[in-house]
Protein 1
Amino acid sequence: MKLVTIIGARPQIIKAAALSRAIKNHFSDRIQEVIVHTGQHYDDNMSQVFFDELGIPRPDYNLHVGSASHGVQTARMTEGIEDILLKEQPDFIVLYGDTNSTLAGAVAAAKIHVPIVHIEAGLRSFNKSMPEEINRIVCDHCSTLLFSPTLAGIENLKHEGFPLDNDGPYTIDNPKVYHCGDIMYDNSLHFADIAEVKTDIIQRLELAGQPFILSTIHRDSNTDHPERLNAIFDALIGLSKENQIVLPLHPRTAKLLKTNLSNEKQTLVFSSASIKLIPPVSFLEMIALERHAQLVMTDSGGVQKEAYFFKKPCIILRPETEWVEIVQTGNAILADADESRIMEAWQRFKNNPPTVFPEIFGDGHAAEFMLDKIISCKVL
Ligand code: UD1
Ligand code: UDP
């Protein structure tokens, strides 16, 4: 069986590591994987570092699309992916998550009848002003095999009319939905101990034995709106009076801080001894930081979940989340880009740190489960 896997943005490269590892360890006699990197992320610390560190095979193709507006970027990817699919004639295309690379893969494949496997199907924010919400809805509705990491995802698909108890053969018009656990959990479990040995970021940042807050910010809804970005940094500056803060900066945020953060706050943030603004870190460094942090503050989907995997409370810098279970269990709080809600959430977690983190993301073998279904289910 031949799979064409599309990756492009940082979290997709990381997720692909789990699938490629499972193919290598358990399915190498039955599955050939062709990896296509769209080039959506291209800086070394947003792309190459993960190949070097996580043992992901070198991409067979790189479309080098780079950054552009949504339409231009997606169009360039769609064109390149269509050419590759026509040449490779795969049994399936594998798409991760909800980025423009996901959307391009879905549109290219569905129109020329290549069945789509969507990993991270069913997640919804119910906020269509997010580009990701459009991408994931389109991808789900073009897919033949939909793998949802959570029960909330399964419910969302049910509400959108996806059948849950249908028989094969499966097609784009008779798709199959599976509940499979989270492929990112596979990676966090696999790499947690390796990270402790292979990285020295905790020592390098002089954080050994010190409580600190780990934060990431990259959503366009925060970076591109000065009032929201300033409100988040008001909270960070407030918290930095009593806490160390580590903030690996996504390149989008690094660029927009210069234009969208007030001059006064830029001066405070860039000169603060307790706010460590650092370039994007590698995955092993990131999970070492997550494991040692006292609390995580983020607008990232992946980082929210990893906070939960490492049993850390999380303040979500968004009005809603697709990962509703982590809020429902009381381990994360939606604080949006609102200084007072962020400070309240901090106080709540400081006074009452959560201790119970139910197993809601599977058993760390989501990749094997998915590959087994891809190989064995009947698809026309
Ligand atoms: C994208 C995804 C988002 C995901 C995020 C993961 C879409 C619509 N968005 O957002 O869902 O959460 O990736 O990180 O697909 N840039 C660089 N170097 C790079 C990559 C980007 O400098 O290697 C800068 C460019 O100025 C670019 C900006 O970051 O314009 C945004 O990059 P883009 O890939 O368009 O969106 P992300 O914000 O990264
Ligand atoms: N990540 C990383 N280095 C960083 C920031 C994040 O390796 O400096 C990892 C993080 O551990 C998670 C993934 O990137 O696995 C999340 O990606 P991101 O926040 O860019 O996107 P999202 O998950 O919101 O789509």
Protein 2
Amino acid sequence: MTKKVLVFASGNGSNFEAIVKYFYNKGLTCINGKTISDAAPQVIFELLCDKKEAYVLKRAKNLGIRSFYVKFDTLADFLTQQKGDYDLFVLAGFMRILPEKILKILAPAPVINIHPSLLPKFKGKDAIERAFREGVKKTGVTVHYVTKNVDSGKIIEQREVQTAGLSLDGLEARIHSIEHSMYPEIIEKLLFKRRVLVFGGGARENAIAAKIKKSPYLDKLFLAGANDGFKNLGENIEFIDYNDLLKKALTNGVDMLVVGPENPLCEGIADIFNKEGINVIGVNKYWAQLEGSKIFAKKFMQKHGIKTADYKVVTAESELLAALKDFKKRNNNAPPVIKADGLALGKGVSVPDTFDEAESIAKSFLEGKFGKASSRIILEERLSGVEVSIMSLWDGDTLVSFPPASDYKRLLDDNRGENTGGMGAYAPSKILIKQKKQVNKYLKVLQSALKSEKTDFTGVLYSGLMLAKDDAYVLEYNVRFGDPEIQALLELLDDTKGADLLDIFIKMGEKRLNEVDLKFKRTGTYCVTLASSGYPENPEKGAQISGINSALKQGCKVYFAGVKNDCLCQAAENCTSALASCNLVTNGGRVLSLVKSGKNARDIVYRAAETIKYKGKIFRKDIGL
Ligand code: AMP
Ligand code: GLY
């Protein structure tokens, strides 16, 4: 696969040289006819310069790169002749604004530029000097698409530079060195875009897929198990088992798998895909036990001094009474929380109010309420405090976390009613500074624990924390993003500043999470789950849903979970749009998530919740209060 890039430059050309050398060092291009790897060069660079005396022309000559000197007033003619050959146009110190006429000639290949400020600040000339004179605390570098307006196209990536202690020369040197490492990497990612497969069929996976779909680094999106509400976001792959899915993924050139739910992770999907060299965002089978076995998780916590509730393992009914008695003594007569050791569809935790209740629940678990998953249970000390969910990313070396999110697990307002899969979320959680410190301290301990175990997975670790009076205690680990927390958290990621989920995942695969600085909007985000009456035990199904488009128009994001396209129109077989003309009906307990951040977000999200209509609709009214 050979790619061709035309670099536009007018001056010194240090960025041009940095780009060419970066690709040369990776064995991807030639310098003076030579590559450093045996593989044929895959990227051909050419230079276009509008100044006859510019030093960049000399650099090109020294590097053996073909160059063109083109006077600006003949540029349109020149490009018309060259058109069609290039995959990417790169402006690297080109001192001219490209008028619309020229941009039209260059299309459809993208045109990108690098600018030495945090756009939209300090557009145009002398950006570094102007930022310095104004005494800003931070400035930086932006790579963006080029439009006819100066430095105004969509931002691809930004990196910040702190100005403290730097002279103007120092700041310039710092910015240029960032440019030289940042620009080539972005060019590489734009030339070799990713084919990503998202696994899972809920609102969480809808939100993840929608975010990835927006990435400049995506070539093609594939979906496995998507519901009818979002299957139009990508190409759907049907599969029999994970090996079959792997085969089809390889045929389609998929190079990244993002796994939503826990079951496939516990069953080892990451190991299966990793073996074939596919990047997986999701833990391997061994570490999936952090969610798949409460006993495994407890042992991990104990080993690493991670605070968690006191507990006792019970592996047979015959041990139960003695264990309860012992527990009673140890915990001032308070009844224990009962937890199935294994995965139980989110229903394996019970918080009884009396010992009698605890005993009968524990018995039912051990007698096989959840099959093998509850053949071993734990009795756990009941904690009180404020619950938060922390989503962390781990690349084998570095832990990067989202801000705390609040999950609304109970069915009814004021946290009454049954435990559900999640009736809504609010992020960032409204917690005290003292509690934030507890969280940060905990995350440091977690990072060292993961490091000392040499955990080699690339994936997500979700800590369910109880912020008690004295400290943060872990209630549970999950090995995937929380649903609905991640719907809210992804909305907080600030893509106007180039915070790109796929890029974060790419960096995870390269073990470079330490370079990721998650940027978040400074607002709250609300996620409200619309569910069906009868949820969670026995939800109604088959009710026709209307009002989706109006909710979208109101500025709300809609992510689908329990829905089905019941379209009977003639186009049904080829119908890919569940939203436009077809008949979307309810098909599960949690039907969809509504998400909004920013000004009046709560009002907007609740207006949308009213706008969307179907028989049996239920939702909580107190999310984020
Ligand atoms: P899950 O494991 O997501 O089904 O969560 C069950 C819920 O039970 C948690 O979110 C808590 O609200 C509650 N819970 C779990 N463990 C404890 C505990 N040790 N003390 C108090 N509440 C708990
Ligand atoms: N929202 C809780 C979970 O995903 O388990």
